[in-house]
Specification:
Helix content is 33%, strand content 28%. With 97 residues, it is of the alpha+beta class. Helix 1 (9-21) packs parallel to helix 2.
Length: 97
């Protein structure tokens, strides 16, 4: 279990994931989240609405990619997008996540 602090729950989640994974996957140290977008897909469902999170990530080599997470829970949607972003970086580096 790893914990981290951040400017809000999504930033803390990103920091905790990096803290847990960077020792094993140093490639992740040099990426940054360059954009974070949230869209409510089913506004008629009010607080139970389906949320889509899109994250844009960039690395030190200039590569940029986007990943998406969807859930009725914004933290879960954010985690899914973050996880996919980190997994994609590792795949591009020839590593197995």
């Amino acid at each position: 279990m790893t914990v981290a602090e951040g400017n809000g729950p999504v930033n803390a989640l990103d920091a905790a994931l990096r803290k847990a994974l960077t020792a094993h996957f140093p490639e992740l140290e040099h990426i940054r989240l360059s954009d974070y977008k949230v869209r409510i897909l089913t506004p008629q469902d009010a607080t139970g609405a389906v949320t889509r999170v899109m994250i844009e990530t960039a690395d030190a080599d200039g590569a940029v990619w986007s990943t998406v997470g969807v859930s009725t829970n914004i933290i879960d949607a954010s985690y899914n997008a973050l996880h996919d972003s980190l997994t994609y970086k590792l795949w591009r580096a020839g590593r197995r996540a």
